[in-house]
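Forum > Structural Biology > Help requests

Title: Can anyone predict the 3D structure of Tn3 transposase DDE domain-containing protein?

Hi all, first post here. I have the sequence for Tn3 transposase DDE domain-containing protein but no way to get a structure on my laptop. I'd be grateful if someone could post the structure tokens.
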Amino acid sequence: MLRLVSLVAWQHINFYGRYEFSRKPELIDMKAILQQLMQLPL
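Reply #1:
Sure, ran it for you. Structure tokens for Tn3 transposase DDE domain-containing protein below:
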């Protein structure tokens, strides 16, 4: 249980930088992504 709450266990999380949580998240256009992926040669 201590591992779940210990900050040492969170060493892989990056808290540097600027984060903004007040904005509405942008939607991902999956159709456009899939169209581009389908254009790639196998």
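DSSP finds two helices and no strands in the chain. The CA atoms of residues 20 and 26 lie 13 Å apart.
Shout if anything looks off.
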